[in-house]
Q: What sequence folds into this?
């Protein structure tokens, strides 16, 4: 019996080693340890041996079974690794191949413009904040010092939504100024944020869309004054429009949430019906701004005798149209690939101050 076991071991081990794949290995397992397998049969033969040697033979058989099982497991692992290696070899990608930019699509002018804004204001120390598109009357109007019957509420062509259970009217935010409130109520000054995002007003023609984009800016600390506002926005206009000597004019205006309030115009010329940015004797309004009203600072739980700063807001779609000479706003939101191919940007060439904002 022991001789027979030795011979079986030798044969089975050879079979295990020569199994070429996982399926072949499985048949070896069945042939050795299955119901009618060689080792199983030897086990069944135990009952016919003399009782004196049965114990020894039984132990030897168990060892044989363990050895075969261990060899099967080992072989299974190495076959598995080999199979994975083979698969990895057939599935390699050559990472040194150049990318074909055509296949990547185009970056929408709004995405490009937002990225440019982030680069310019990022270099001035601003970080990006966000807020919800659907907000309540408090964040959109109340906290921003619009009184109950303030005429400016009507000027916003607001989309109203069903009120909250407590009666608070809900709106699609009409400006990103909501995030001034959200930030001041949450963050202890110093604050220096820009807020790019979607805004909504019931208005629609070649230069107005019911959904459009704004970027808000907010600086709050203990020392920031009107001079900082002017320096910051003059630098921004010249960097964004890439005209070093671009004339920038500050004109008195009114917003409930800033005092004083100003609107910013940039120089342009309209000679021959063509709009050209630069010193051409004409002016073009591009943004609203001002020193944050003490009431707004107080409404956010901050002390207006201690904290002060400025805010600004501008239309992203509008400055994108101006910079990239896009005549009509409506196709911005038509998802027309022909338009995007013409006005879009190569996604592998992101704007940076060092590398150039746009090419
Ligand atoms: N929220 C104003 C608007 O939508 C713009 C603005 C923002 C003006 C911040 C001043 C300060 O017209």
A:
């Amino acid at each position: 019996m022991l001789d027979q076991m030795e011979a079986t071991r030798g044969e089975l081990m050879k079979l295990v080693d020569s199994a070429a794949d996982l399926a072949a290995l499985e048949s070896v397992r069945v042939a050795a340890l299955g119901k009618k397998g060689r080792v199983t049969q030897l086990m069944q033969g135990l009952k016919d041996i003399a009782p004196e040697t049965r114990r020894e033979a039984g132990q030897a058989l168990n060892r044989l079974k363990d050895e075969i099982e261990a060899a099967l497991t080992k072989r299974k692992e190495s076959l598995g690794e080999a199979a994975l290696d083979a698969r990895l070899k057939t599935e390699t990608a050559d990472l040194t191949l150049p990318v074909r930019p055509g296949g990547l699509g185009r970056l929408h002018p709004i995405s490009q413009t937002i990225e440019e804004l982030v680069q310019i204001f990022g270099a001035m120390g601003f970080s990006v904040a966000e807020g919800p598109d659907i907000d309540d009357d408090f964040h959109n109007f109340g906290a921003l010092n619009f009184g109950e019957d303030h005429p400016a509420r009507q000027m916003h062509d607001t989309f109203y939504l069903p009120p909250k259970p407590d009666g608070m009217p809900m709106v699609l935010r009409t400006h990103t100024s909501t995030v001034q409130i959200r930030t001041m109520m949450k963050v202890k000054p110093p604050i220096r944020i820009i807020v790019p995002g979607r805004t909504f007003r019931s208005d629609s023609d070649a230069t107005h869309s019911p959904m459009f984009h704004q970027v808000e800016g907010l600086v709050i600390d203990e020392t920031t004054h009107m001079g900082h506002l002017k320096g910051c926005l003059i630098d921004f206009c010249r960097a964004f429009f890439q005209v070093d000597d671009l004339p920038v004019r500050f004109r008195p205006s009114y917003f409930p949430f800033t005092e004083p309030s100003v609107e910013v115009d940039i120089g342009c010329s309209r000679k021959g019906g063509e709009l050209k940015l630069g010193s051409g004797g004409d002016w073009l309004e591009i943004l609203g701004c001002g020193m944050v009203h003490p009431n707004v600072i107080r409404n956010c739980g901050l002390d207006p005798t201690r904290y002060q700063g400025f805010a600004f807001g501008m239309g992203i779609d509008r400055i994108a149209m101006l910079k990239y000479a896009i005549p009509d706003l409506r196709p911005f939101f038509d998802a027309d690939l022909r338009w995007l191919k013409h006005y879009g940007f190569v996604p592998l060439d992101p704007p940076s101050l060092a590398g150039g904002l746009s090419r």
Q: What stands out?
A: The radius of gyration is 37 Å. Residues 109 and 332 are 8 Å apart (CA to CA).
